[in-house]
Amino acid sequence: MLCDVLTGAAGTCIGNRQFQSHLKPYWDSGLREYHKQMRYYRSQWCRAGRPRNETNTEYMSYKTAKRDFRRAHRKAANGHMMQLNREIDESAEMNTNDF
User: Which superkingdom does the taxonomy of this entry point to (predicted)?
Assistant: First the structure.
């Protein structure tokens, strides 16, 4: 009972945040839309019985959506890494303390 009271008081006074196991700072609304579209087409493909022939429209639309998402994800991740490298280079040139 004492533990319940203490955790309740800590929750109201301090606040509570959900744990983010994989934080991706480059994730934006564009990637969210690509991911949402990929999930939609995957569910359509699964409902169709997961056919794996290239003449099936559900299969091909899922593969296209997945390819588009992966390209956008790779582009966003690479752009973020390039920005971080640029910031490191600039701080190394300007101030060795930040570096």
Answer: Eukaryota
Which residues constitute the domain of residue 55? 24-94
Domain count, the chain: 1
Q: Is residue 31 part of a domain?
A: yes
How far are the Cα atoms of 44, 59, 66, 69, 73 from residue 38, in angstroms, in the given order? 10, 11, 5, 7, 12
Residue 99 lies in a domain: no
What are the Cα distances from residue 95, in Å, to 36, 49, 85, 86?
42, 59, 15, 14
- Would 16 be classed as within a structural domain? no
Residues 6+ apart with CB under 8 A from 56: 48
pLDDT at 89: 85
Q: Is the whole-model pTM more than 0.85?
A: no
- pLDDT digit string (tens) for 23-61? 888 988 999 999 999 999 999 999 999 999 999 999 999
Check pLDDT > 90 for residue 96. no
